[in-house]
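Changelog note: in this version the structure field was regenerated for every chain. One regenerated record is shown below for reference.
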Amino acid sequence: MARATYGIKTHETLLTELTGQLVPQLVAAFGVGADTAAEMLIVAGDNIDRVRSEPAWARLCGVAPIPASSGMTNRHRLNRGGHRQANAALYRAVIVRMQHHEPTRAYVARRTADGKTKAEIIRCLKRLLARETWALLRPLRTIAIAT
C-alpha cells in the first residue's frame, strides 16, 4: 500500500510542477488546482487556436446555456454535449468556490435571494468559470499563433 501511495504522490507532484510551468495563472486561480488545470489543457488540446471564441470554449466544456423556457417560465439549461471531464472539473472548482471563496458565496446568496435554484446558480458559476479559464489560457493562444 505504501508503494501505491508513493506513486500517487509522485504523479501529483509531477502534475503540479508541469501545469505550474505551463499555465501558472490558471493554477493560481481560486479553486482551480493542478488537476483542473490539466483537464483544461487536455480539452484545449495541441491546437489551442482551433477554439476561436469564448462561447465556443464554453460549448466545448459543456457549459454553454441553452434556452429551456416554456410557457410562463424563462430559464436555461446546460448543453449536454461537450467534454464531460472538463465539465466535471469545472463543477469541482465551482463547489470549492461555493464553500470557501467569499465573492462566490456572496454571489450565491444574492442569486438565491433572486429566487434561483442551486442547480441554476451552479450552471451560472460554471459558465463564469469557463469564461475565466478562457481568459487565463490566453498566453497559450498567443504562443500558438506566433509559432
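Spot check on this record: DSSP finds eight helices and two strands in the chain. The chain has a mean pLDDT of 87.
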